[in-house]
What does this fold into?
Amino acid sequence: MEKTRLRRDTERMKKRTNQTTSPVDVTQNLTYWILLLSNTLTRSAARDLSEVAEITVPEWRIISAVGSRGALSLNDLARAIAVDKAWVSRTVANLEKKGFIQRKPLLSDGRQFTLELTDSGRRLHLEISAWSLQRQERLKGAFSEQEYKQFKGFIERLQTVADTMLERPAKE
It folds into this structure.
């Protein structure tokens, strides 16, 4: 049913797109609003994190992912936080220098390794988790319980559409 609705919505969008001849103001696009919100939230998180723990938002994302999931390979970590493996590798190297993450070689293949939090990394994860939970509650406070469930559903629906947009060529 979801795929049928997506196909129908895509067809409707194609018809609308073919009829549009006026220039587009990207600041009126849904994607712009989402990006603006994401950037604003990231900037405020960066400011707060620097006061709480002197780490960056990307470092926190990695600490949180490894801390909540346990030992992860670099590839699994990149998939978990949906970012480029090279970016993850650079950020992990910084966290290793700070003593928050360590590489553990796999016994089955010494060239492969997993990433784990060190003792200080685990303490930091717990400390920042309290801050993160308060931040999430503040954001969720903008909605009633029902609105929050709806909003989450809308985000999931948009993610599904975005995933299908990745799967097919732009000119389709």
User: Anything to note?
Assistant: Residues 28-141 form a domain with the Arc Repressor Mutant, subunit A fold (CATH 1.10.10.10). The longest strand covers residues 109-117. The CA atoms of residues 44 and 136 lie 13 Å apart. The chain has a mean pLDDT of 89.
